[in-house]
Amino acid sequence: MRTLVSMATMMLICAAAVADQAQPTPVVPDGATPAGKVSLTATSVAAGVGWVWGNGQLSFNGKDHTFKVSGLSVVDAGVSSITASGDVYNLAHLSDFAGNYTVAAAGIALGGGAGASYLKNEHGVVIKLVETEQGLRFNLAGEGVKITLKN
Length: 151
Prior knowledge:
Mean pLDDT: 73
Structural class: mainly beta
Largest sheet: 5 strands, antiparallel, barrel
CATH topology: Lipocalin
Distance between the termini: 75 Å
CATH architecture: Beta Barrel
Order of helices and strands: HEEEEEE
Helix content: 10-25%
Number of domains: 1
CATH class: Mainly Beta
Number of helices: 1
Strand content: over 45%
Number of strands: 6
Strand order of the largest sheet: 2-5-4-3-6
């Protein structure tokens, strides 16, 4: 009987501890309005750790701006093509879009088998990238990718 009471007490303590844990803060709050939209095409060449490069377009304040993407990636061996599009959040000034992006959250499941990754730069700009071709693997190393505006 004593063992049963001890086990029940431990289960209640563990349940209370788990229930008391704070939920993680979302990268982008629910219902947030995007400041812009992006689309990009990139190529990755790797044998474990590799290089990713490509081009994209940002639609912001009614204008289109081109940019280039480059950086380290952690991908499967071989060459892969990445085509993605998404929304941009926390962008008040065009100049804040350029920067070094790291993964803020990855592998978020969406309906229909699609997935999303959140990238965040040093200016607080967040890009929610959604795969537009099956097989998107935007697994970035800690260094992430660099986005540079072309115009």
